[in-house]
Predict the 3D structure of the following.
Amino acid sequence: MMLKIQVDLNLLRLTLRIPPAKIFSWWLQPQVFLLAGEATSFRNDTDREIAFRQESNFYYLTGCTIPSSYVLAAYQPGTSLSHTPSIELFIPKAELADVMWSVPPPSIEVAKEMHDVSRVDHPAALPAAIETLTKAFPEALFHTLPRRSPLFPILPDEYTELVLSSGNAAVTDLYLLSALHRARLTKDEEEIAAIKWANEISSRAHEVVMRVLGKAVQGRIEKDSGTAVRPLLPGEWLIEKEAEAEAIFVASCRREGSVRLFMTMLSPC
């Protein structure tokens, strides 16, 4: 990712005719990224939650699926941070309302075991963490995702203002997104295994749908089979509409551990 930032800085130098020495000094500066995770959204004017999905770049960097989280990470070429960057994850504190109505976020201790990060805390500690970094690295360049774009979670201005008021530190949203796009093109063994696993789950789900359709064609499932005193079991379902095929497809994926589906199935309407 930092290599991509370096490439973008070189392009910027050529475009704006910035002296190479200035670009090189930017590259040697400590690099920090600050991202907000996705928040739980609701249907308009209701308390009905919309199915949550973490912002993809945030998930790529943290593996965290907890709504309303933040990540703050620091890297500096030529130091120990170039080998082991500092990564701090900030997750919401569990409130009584969370316990009453939904699954609460994990405790700090549990979250630390779940994520490969340097530290886990609550968002209330984020301003102090930013101040600590700006004091330790007064020349740091803070990277964010595009801050005025509706495509990404809102990063409150109070956090970037803390950076800008600290002295020589700067904030930019010019490089991080393109760097992440470049980094995410390369898959490691774990990511490749996850892609294969997802493909196997989807393939088997399509096969399940085809087998259920085949049973109906062979006359092994008839409409209204079963008794009138109980609901039909999955093995007795008859697919007559696309929605019914989708229900079987989703059920098959869920049974094998799929939490979210990019799409359900491809079929004519």
